[in-house]
């Protein structure tokens, strides 16, 4: 039962209780009423509509047709009260708090802006049919508009909190299930693969190759279990660890903080694409056995990822030569993406010493220095 359902039920009780206002004041001024029978009929109609509207909301929720009809009947009731509840005074008796029922329904269904608009519509009707602008109608306007705005705001906050609680519960349940699966995999598949790897290395020959393949599958399975444990964050953000963890395997090691490294979703996607280009360059230009290490560092106002390999490296100026030849993989796929994110790239390499690509992106768009990073300029 969400906050909207709770508010609907509370509004139902409120509307029936609020009918006591015109009944009480009408009874006290009954002898002075110009049309007592019409006043009684108006109260009966309001009672019937209150029951019908609450049943409509209960059965079909906050449908637009029900909300507009509720507001229309409320405006009509305000107009009718000026005629039926005329007691000979300067200001006819009002239907009072009952008017707020439709305003609360609009606020619960569509938020604070709609709640304030509904309150303003009912208030304008009061001014038109109950003697214009005076202290009574001004007080009603302030109360109705503030009621609609405040109720809508609280409902929106409550709905957002409920959504977060549901997602947190779902993530918690999923994490427990992943932990259970990880234990089962560790107690069965991973141990068998480790045993095959060890025994294959001991036997040698073709068994050694079989052991090596089993070792690669063990590492890949461990990486899969780890990457499955990443949690999807809220509010349009992504955990960079989740995106980079997909690279982990027999030749690629990912080292990242234990806590989520959150970035705006598009920033995280572009950052991960730049890292993927760096990893692909290693696979394309280096021997098959080359190892790659990804290091993720969360610096608070910025995030840095280093891609290091133990490949053959390259001579100074080689990147400039490649760009001049029209091979723009590094220039566009890596430097171009990071530059668009307001970040910086540094590349350090030497023949026989491997290569390190350092990428740093600020959390605020445009907040970092463009060009190359502090190393390898």
UniProtKB/TrEMBL annotation:
InterPro entries: DUF5931, HATPase_C_sf, HATPase_dom, Sensor_HK_TwoCompSys. Signal peptide: none annotated. One of its GO terms (molecular function) is kinase activity. One of its GO terms (biological process) is phosphorelay signal transduction system. Coiled coil: none annotated. Keywords: Kinase, Membrane, Transferase, Transmembrane, Transmembrane helix, Two-component regulatory system. Residues 270-364 form the Histidine kinase/HSP90-like ATPase domain. Pfam families: DUF5931, HATPase_c. Residues 2-163 form the DUF5931 domain. This is Sensor histidine kinase. NCBIfam families: HK_morpho_MacS. The chain crosses the membrane at residues 12-30, 36-53, 65-85, 91-109, 116-135, 141-161. It comes from the Bacteria. The keyword Transmembrane applies. It comes from Glycomyces terrestris.
């Amino acid at each position: 039962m969400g906050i909207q359902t709770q508010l609907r039920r509370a509004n139902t009780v409120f509307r029936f209780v609020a009918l006591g206002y015109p009944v009480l004041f009408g009874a006290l001024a009954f002898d002075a009423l110009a049309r007592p029978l019409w006043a009684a009929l108006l109260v009966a109609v309001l009672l019937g509509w209150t029951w019908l509207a609450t049943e409509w909301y209960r059965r079909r929720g906050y449908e637009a047709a029900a909300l507009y009809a509720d507001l229309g009947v409320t405006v009509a009731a305000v107009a009718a009260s000026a005629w039926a509840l005329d007691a000979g005074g300067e200001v006819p008796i009002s239907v009072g708090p009952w008017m707020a029922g439709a305003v609360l329904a609009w606020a619960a269904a569509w938020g604070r802006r709609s709640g304030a608009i509904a309150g303003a519509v009912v208030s304008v009707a009061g001014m038109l049919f109950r003697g214009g602008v005076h202290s009574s109608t001004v007080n009603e306007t302030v109360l109705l508009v503030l009621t609609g705005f405040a109720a809508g705001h609280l409902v929106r906050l409550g709905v957002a909190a409920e959504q977060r609680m549901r997602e947190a519960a779902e993530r918690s349940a999923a994490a427990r299930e992943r932990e259970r699966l990880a234990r089962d995999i560790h107690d069965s598949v991973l141990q068998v693969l480790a045993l095959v790897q060890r025994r294959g290395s001991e036997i040698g020959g073709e068994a050694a190759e079989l052991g090596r393949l089993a070792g690669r599958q063990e590492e890949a399975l461990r990486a899969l279990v780890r990457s499955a444990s990443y949690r999807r964050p809220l509010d349009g953000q992504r955990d960079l660890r989740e995106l980079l963890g997909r690279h982990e395997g027999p030749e690629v090691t990912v080292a990242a903080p234990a806590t989520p490294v959150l970035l705006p979703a598009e920033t995280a996607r572009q950052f991960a694409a730049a890292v993927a280009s760096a990893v692909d360059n290693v696979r394309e230009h280096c021997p098959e056995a080359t190892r790659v290490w990804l290091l993720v560092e969360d610096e608070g106002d910025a995030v840095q990822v280093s891609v290091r390999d133990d490949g053959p490296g390259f001579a100074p100026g080689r990147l400039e030569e490649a760009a001049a030849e029209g091979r723009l993989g590094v220039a566009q796929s890596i430097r171009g993406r990071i530059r668009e994110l307001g970040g910086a790239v540094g590349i350090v390499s030497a023949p026989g010493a491997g290569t390190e690509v350092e990428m740093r992106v600020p959390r605020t768009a445009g907040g970092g220095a463009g060009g190359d990073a502090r190393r390898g300029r």
